[in-house]
Amino acid sequence: MNMRKTSILAILGAAMTVAACSDNSDVNGDGKVSRNERADEMRRDGYLAMQPGRWRTSFAFTEIDVPRLGNKEKEQIREELSTGASGISCLSEANAAQPGPDFFGGEGAEDCNYRKFDIAGNRVSMQLSCGMGSMGKADMDLDGTVGDTEFRFDTKLVVHVPIAGKIKLDGTMTGKHEGSCRGDE
């Protein structure tokens, strides 16, 4: 389960590095929103930089749909993913204007393609797909707000795992600034 938790963390973290709403940030029309297109969107639409320092991120999955599993097993997966995906990170001053995947989710978030990306001030909405190597892939929709000291996203996650099939999760992802980094993040 550790590898799955790390992959889910990476996917959720990658989602926080960017955002999507009403205009088309896929300027070249290739169906993917590149890192440069995301950066242009953030500059164009006035992204509000986050405060550098210690951040606590929490996930609460309220709905889970896993084929072939009973309620007890579903509840256990929901709890493990919520706990495993939550954590504390240190956001450097250099990265506060545009946090990278490692701030939110750790290693492995680089294999993501953003299909939709828009940001307007603090309002964020996006769609992305992330590979998880041999574990499968995940599709995610995020919609919410990002402020300088907190963020909140309604999250819809569909994980395609060869062994278990399609796992659907709905919930929220929240983050709160807790002051200066302590070095134990």
What do these coordinates show?
By secondary structure, this protein is α+β, with helices and mostly antiparallel strands. It has one domain (about 1-175). About 25% of the residues lie in helices and about 40% in strands. It has four helices and seven strands. The chain has helices at about 1-15, 35-45, 70-85, 100-105, and strands at about 55-65, 85-90, 110-120, 125-130, 135-145, 150-160, 165-175. It has a seven-stranded antiparallel beta sheet with strand order 2-1-7-6-5-4-3. α1 (about 1-15) crosses α3. The longest helix has 15 residues, at about 1-15. It starts with a helix and ends in an 8-residue tail after the last strand. Residues about 1-5, about 15-20 and about 105-110 have low confidence and may be disordered. Pfam families: DUF3617. Keywords: Signal.
Low-confidence stretches: 1-6, 13-22, 105-109
Oligomer: single chain
Instruction: Walk across the major sheet and give the strand order.
Output: 2-1-7-6-5-4-3
Rg, alpha carbons = 16 Å
State the secondary-structure class. Answer: alpha+beta
Main sheet characteristics: 7 strands, antiparallel
> What percentage of residues falls in helices of 4 or more residues?
10-25%
Keywords: Signal
Pfam families: DUF3617 (PF12276)
Signal peptide: 1-20
Protein name: DUF3617 family protein
